[in-house]
TrEMBL record:
Pfam families: Acetyltransf_1. This is GNAT family N-acetyltransferase. Coiled coil: none annotated. CDD domains: NAT_SF. It comes from the Bacteria. Residues 4-144 form the N-acetyltransferase domain.
Length: 144
């Protein structure tokens, strides 16, 4: 497995990214326009035998903290440490860009991701209810 890093919209991976996103997020669509509107978009892709098997996307949040936005691993590839590997690499890249803090949101329904965040040094700092009525947990981590 190799990790590819793309700054900006990953046009060369869009078809595979959209398919994997739909697989991970119960058919949800990831529109190109949504990616184009993210300031400082940073994309990391786990690739094996030419196939995208995992991804981690993030961007600069309006308050200038780097926001780790979306990520996932194909169900057939889970349990291999791919999400952790992508997270570690993302944090290294974000630190190289000069950020000292990273934030992400989680949902109780995705316990594996909550556990991964905690194992990688994130702290729970708050919770909120999003515009769709879902309870979300805010995680932050210092990158020093």
């Amino acid at each position: 497995m190799q990790i590819e890093i793309v700054k900006g919209v990953p046009h060369q991976y869009m078809a595979q990214l959209q398919a994997l996103h739909a697989h991970v997020f119960e058919g949800a669509e990831l529109r190109l326009e949504k990616l184009e509107n993210k300031d400082g978009l940073l994309c990391l892709f786990a690739i094996e035998d030419g196939q995208l098997i995992g991804f981690k996307l993030g961007y600069i949040h309006p308050d200038q903290v780097f926001y780790s936005w979306l990520g996932g691993v194909h169900e057939s590839q889970r349990g291999r440490g791919i999400a952790s590997n992508l997270m570690v690499q993302q944090h290294k890249e974000v630190q190289k860009l000069g950020f000292q803090q990273i934030r992400t949101y989680g949902r109780n329904q995705r316990k594996a991701m909550l556990i991964t965040n905690l194992k990688h040094g994130f702290d729970i700092i708050s919770t909120f209810i999003d515009e769709k009525g879902r309870h979300k947990i805010i995680f932050e981590k210092s990158l020093d």
